[in-house]
Design a protein that fits this description.
Elements: E1 2-7, H1 14-22, E2 27-31, H2 67-79, E3 83-88, H3 92-100, H4 105-121, E4 126-129, E5 140-145, E6 149-153, E7 166-167, E8 170-171, H5 186-207, E9 210-213, E10 222-223, E11 226-227, H6 235-242, E12 248-253, H7 254-259, H8 265-274, E13 278-282, E14 285-289, E15 292-296, H9 305-314, E16 320-322, H10 334-355
Parallel strand pairs: 1-2, 1-16, 2-3, 3-4, 4-9, 9-12, 12-13, 13-16
Antiparallel strand pairs: 5-6, 7-8, 10-11, 14-15
Helix pairs in contact: 2-4, 3-4, 4-5, 8-9
This protein binds manganese (II) ion.
């Protein structure tokens, strides 16, 4: 297993690559969507949470990520002795009508195919994505974690409808008439995922890229009146079985899985790692379950992280683990300190595991 660090778009700098390397990482997962254009309620020095209008404006619909910029990023990462393992998340601007089954769906499926081909050509092996209409929303920020560390959690469900022009907790069109996005059924959402996988999986296979699906965060059956896909561990199997292929894989988030009300996180790790379906792992810890959970320091939640590593080792998982989120530590670099703490813990656990 390998240690990695996930970096948001504005953090893709030489200094942060060096920080990752110093903390023992060998791999980088890069976000190319800018989640931080929503204003003061969504500060850039923490994971995005946002308000009712989400994280803010999505990117430019006409500017797809090019082969050249992906290659440049890979080279910048490699210049600091690291490997670029994955890009995490499509931009709503590039695929809103794939999620919403809107009029631009055909063109946007072609967008996504181009992006996957560009990743393959640039030698980036994984594309993480979150097939979700409401997206990562409804979470709160408070000093939930040990020592009053600022952290993220949930205090009850979010039922306020999603306004027109919004999807995936971002605004892709600010100039639409008022109103809410009509709710759809769960079956309709699965049908849309099926269309996406039918179109993208063959392209991903040919490009040598794995598509890796993140479970719902937070994992409730509905958010903002919209259905969600993987809100129980067993639903990951439905994704796999919908389009069997090595390119149809999982961005395996331990935190989201532990927040689910059914199943068992250790059984889920066993079930999906045994099938070799984990593209990479979000290695983070939580207490509680939806709709009331809190993100914790890695050593301080409900999950026995070392037990998880043992299962992954037994099933020969050889991919990358990243901390995903951590609480903010009280100092002048709260995000970095939180990540360094998580990575130190992970590095020690991995070194110990190697000797067993
Ligand atoms: Mn995650």
């Amino acid at each position: 297993m390998k240690l990695g660090l996930g970096l948001y778009r504005h953090m893709l700098t030489r200094e942060n690559f060096q920080f990752a390397r110093q903390a023992g990482a060998t791999h980088i997962v890069a976000h190319l969507v800018d989640y931080f254009k929503g204003g003061a309620h969504n500060p850039r020095d923490n994971q995005p949470t946002g308000g009712e209008c989400g994280w803010g404006l999505a990117g430019d619909p006409d500017k797809l990520w090019t082969f050249e910029e992906l290659l440049e990023l890979r080279r910048a990462v490699e210049a600091e002795g690291l490997t670029l393992e994955a890009i995490e998340n499509f931009d709503p601007a590039h695929w809103h009508d794939v999620l919403l089954d809107g009029p631009k769906k055909g063109r946007q499926l072609e967008n996504l195919k181009s992006i996957i081909r560009n990743l393959g050509q640039a030698g980036i092996p994984i594309m993480g994505y979150n097939f979700s209409i409401a997206g990562v929303c409804g979470r709160t920020q408070s000093p939930y974690a040990r020592g009053n560390a600022m952290s993220v959690g949930m205090e009850g469900p979010l039922d306020v409808p999603m306004p027109n022009g919004m999807v995936w907790n971002m605004v892709y069109d600010p100039d639409v008439p008022p109103g809410a996005v009509p709710a759809i059924t769960s079956e309709e959402l699965w049908k849309r995922l099926g269309v996406f996988l039918e179109a993208l999986v063959p392209v991903a296979e040919q490009a040598g890229v794995k598509l890796a699906l993140h479970p719902d965060d937070p994992p409730l059956p509905t958010m903002r009146g919209q259905p969600r896909l993987v809100y129980q561990p067993r639903l990951y199997q439905r994704v796999i079985d919908l389009k069997p292929s090595p390119a149809n894989a999982l961005e395996f988030c331990l935190g989201s899985l532990a927040e689910m009300t059914e199943g068992d996180v250790y059984e889920a790790v066993e079930q999906y790692s045994r099938q070799n379906k984990l593209a990479y792992v979000h290695f983070r810890n939580v207490t509680g379950k939806v709709p009331a959970y809190r993100e914790t320091f890695i050593d301080d939640g409900d999950i026995d992280m070392v037990r998880i590593l043992h299962i992954l080792k037994r099933n020969k998982f050889e991919g990358v683990l990243i901390p995903d989120h951590t609480p903010q530590m009280s100092c002048s670099a709260p995000w970095h300190a939180g990540m360094a703490f998580a990575m130190g813990y992970m590095r020690a656990a991995l070194q110990h595991l190697e000797k067993e």
